[in-house]
Amino acid sequence: MKTASPFLELESAPRVDVTWDGVPLSLPEEANLAAALLAAGVHVFRSTPVSGAPRAPFCMMGACFDCLVEINGVTRQACMLEVIEGMVMTRPSEMGAHADET
Amino acid sequence: METDYAIIGGGVVGLSVAWGLLRRGLTVTVLDGDDGSFRASRGNFGLVWVQSKGMNQPRYAQWSQDSAAIWADFANEVGYNTGHPIPLEQNGGLDLHFTEETLYATVQKYEKLKEQLGGNYPFEVLGHNALRKSEPHIGPKVVGAILHHQDGHANPLKLLVALAADVRRMGGRVLTGKTVTDVTKPDAFRVTCSDGTSVTSKKVVLSAGLGAAQLGPKMGFKVPIRPQRGQVLITEKLPKLINRPSLIARQVDEGGIQIGATNEEVGLDDRVTQPGLSGLAAEAIAAYPALARAQLVRSWGALRILSPDGLPIYQESAEMPGAYFVTCHSGITLAAAHARLLPDWLEGSDAAPDLEVFNENRFAVS
Amino acid sequence: MLMKRDFVIIGAGPAGMAAATQAAELGLYVTVLDEQLRAGGQIYRDVDRASKSLGNILGADYTDGARLTKHLRQSGVEHISGAVVWAIEDEFRISYTCEGRGAQIEADRILLATGALERPMPIPGWTLPGVMTAGAGQILLKQSGVVAQNAVLVGAGPLLYLIGAQMVRAGTPPAAMVETQTRSDMIRGLRHVGGALQGWRYMAKGLGMLAEIKRAKVPRYTGATGIGIEGEGKAEVVTFTHNGRTQRIACETVFLHHGVVANTQAARSLGISHTWAVAHGSFVPELDDWGQSDVAGVFIAGDGAGIGGAKAAEHAGRLVALKVAEDAKRLSTKDCNLMAAPLRRALVRELAARPFLDAAYPPYGAALRPADNTVICRCEEITAGDIRSYANLGCLGPNQTKAFGRAGMGHCQGRYCGLTVTALLADANRQSPDETGYYRIRPPLKPVTLGELAAMDGTTQDAAE
Q1: What is the pLDDT of residues C148-187, one digit of tens each?
Q2: Could you tell me if B72 lies within 8 Å of chain C, comparing CB atoms?
Q3: C380 to chain B: nearest residue by CA?
């Protein structure tokens, strides 16, 4: 899932280990979480509950809710969070019409 | 004669009645308000509910049961006709209790009603452990519940869309953005709107919710209704947490959990308040602790239309025979009865249900 | 027991920061609530953390924001960052979430300085991963120093040129700029050339950026139509028609922009009246010339009052602070008017170029009237055709439409579909946007967990706890 990123990080910063959807990643400490995930090559953040369509960050300012991740059982917007060492994130366990189609 | 029936109010009550009349081959014109009207039809909880109704009036319990029994068939027909399926689940509903006292007090009332209904009141009392078997996420504070097998829930908004579509499909005329200002009966009925629109009809049904307060007296009705606010919360879409609906919470077909509702006497104020939302959240978490981490995404406040005893009013006007007042606060539960059974009463046919107990005169001061 | 503030400001962008600093100077007890972790709003996002090299890429207009953040710090105003406001009630109790806990604060007066949102731009494929707003591209750069390597910029407006120039400076020029404004738009804009010349500094910057983009040989296509984005599970190609020929440009990221619009969520939740502003192509709150709304004690300044840009936001923020100080009897009416005069003159200068810009870079028409199968509500995946069908079922306004089809019921609460739904209904019902109306906005303005809500049951908490 982690592929070459379409994004370039212009500056470097000390990195810390986190887990995203079971995959270990090394992200810049205190970086914006959505930006860091994008730069690390994460293309798809979640699937929509209505149709299962893939989504990724859209507005980066906490308004569109397309960058949702789940941390400690709570759904949060990745663009409103910072990278903390040891963070464990999963895709949101949203239910909807699509969830039944497995 | 422009139309057989003019129906004032295009919410779920008006559209259900319109549907039933159109099914019988009558012509119908519905006059509906605008986008900003109060519209209990889009703010309700979506229950198709039998238990707790008519505790002091068995006839109301029966009327609710009659409607619940034919709801699936009605929903299937409307859904099939329009291609707008109406989600419905009738696997029973729960009345959750946090103390043994309230649980047993309710059970006594249900036993009494069951007798009055000749035994047709299928309910079970579940202690906490028994409840956990079917509701694995129920919290420790819930001492038990009453499971009533005739209860269920539907998607009330999809019901509304489907009815709107089917009424039009069957040739019903729906005029939107209308405020009816007067109803007179020189010979036929003449219904006039603020923008000058006028409809003549053989009969009129006033089903305008709170909007009936102004117009009803002009038609000879007492209209003893008052608004009562219910605030409701809905969460983000979640994995399946709640199997059976209760008045505290239900998981809707789209995946969100709907939590409700307050009972506030605040007049025509449909706003939500933080204390209202917080109280509802606290109760929901007491019932289902896993909800503590669920995100509230939306809330709304809607105004119930309550008669003094909370029961429906079905009344023909003595001053203007042929004008009918139809109002209730259980428009979803009663949608099937309004669609299939009420038209017989409106038409005065042999099959007309006995709705005497729902007469306005029951509120006469002695 | 809450200590009621004289003045609470929601938003720490230029309007909020300027208002806070000015109000504090006049002796008011002020608190700023901002959902971001550091002051700056969107336009000066993380300006205090930007390195020198990043500052060079972003330009002096951006780094100038550090002046405002510095004054805010020095003013001693209480600034609660990471505070997500979700309800404003009564007169006035503000509920917000901070660090996972619910809290409340009371204020005599409020300034809503919550800025703008990108105008929704529903085109085929706009929901694919890799498609973002131009504003998002800016934020990636400002806050994280992250830049897209193979991006196409799509739409209309000076922000596209700013981003394009910044990407050139960063060494990753855009693969192409696909612009929707036509020559006739430009000519219509020139009718406002007087204003454009008054705002000549601003225009000169724009031309400078275009020159940078040209020097980097970035292909520009103007007057583009029929724009769509395609790809298997993510954005891979932008297609469009240009001079009668179909073009396909491979890319990995697409930045969309066709203007910004006032963010009216908080204002609407308070019942503040709004009108459709034809020039802005959006609803704006009805305000007097101090920024007071028709709900007593609630002021709005900055882009949330109508798009005017960062400098205009500062001046408007200060005007509000003066008026609030006068209301609170910390400033005489005479001094208030004296101090307001230069701000009003500065505002006129700042807004001078806007008529030209609005006319020369209008919104992309096909995105204002999307095809039936284009998704217009991202959260619930409702299409334009769905909305048109609800109009046929008698929906005159967005609230009936929301009930019928769920558009506007998702997480974003209509931020990215509200204007589209109003426009589609207005068209279908042959009514004006004002007659059609907008979504009823209610709390929570942002999601809040039930646990936080429940913890507030029966108590109120002070921000300082």
Answers
A1: 998 999 999 999 999 999 999 999 999 999 999 999 998 8
A2: no
A3: B254
Contact across the interface for B295 and A49, Cβ inside 8 Å: no
- Highest CATH level, class, for C369-431: mainly alpha
List the structure tokens of B294.
């669920």
pLDDT digit string, tens, across residues B291-311: 999 999 999 999 999 999 999
- Among C399, C413, C442, the residue with its CB nearest the CB of B35 is C399
Q: List subunits contacting chain A, requiring 3 or more Cβ pairs under 8 Å.
A: B, C
Q: Domain A15-99: give its CATH architecture.
A: Roll (3.10)
What ipTM goes with this model?
Answer: 0.94
Question: What are the boundaries of each domain within chain A?
Answer: 15-99
Same fold, C4-117+261-331 and C120-258: yes
Express each pLDDT in B184-225 by its tens digit: 999 999 999 999 999 999 999 999 999 999 999 999 999 999
Summarised one tens digit per residue, pLDDT across range B14-44 is: 999 999 999 999 999 999 998 888 888 988 9
Angle in degrees, 0-180, between the axes of helices C384-392 and C418-429, rounded to the nearest 10: 40
Please name the helix (run of DSSP H) or strand (run of DSSP E) that holds residue C133, with its range, or none.
strand C131-133
Q: Given a cut of 90, is residue C85 above it in pLDDT? A: yes
**Residue A74: its chain C contacts at CB < 8 A?**
449
CATH fold of C120-258, please?
Answer: FAD/NAD(P)-binding domain (3.50.50)
Among the CATH numbers 3.20.20.70, 3.90.960.10, 3.40.50.300, 3.50.50.60, which is that of C4-117+261-331?
A: 3.50.50.60
Q: Is the pLDDT of residue C425 over 90?
A: yes
C2 within 8 A of C106, measured Cβ to Cβ? yes
Other residues' Cβ atoms within 10 Å of the Cβ of residue C435: 16
In chain C, where the domains are located: 4-117+261-331, 120-258, 369-431
Contact between residue A76 and residue A68 where contact means Cβ atoms under 8 Å apart: yes
pLDDT digits (tens, 9 = 90+) for C345-361: 999 999 988 898 899 99
DSSP sequence for B143-187: -EEEEETT-EEE-HHHHHHHHHHHHHHTT-EEE-S--EEEEE-SS
Q: Does A47 touch chain B (CB under 8 A)?
A: no
Query: What residues contact residue A82 under an 8 Å CB cut-off, 6+ apart?
Result: A30, A31, A32, A33, C37
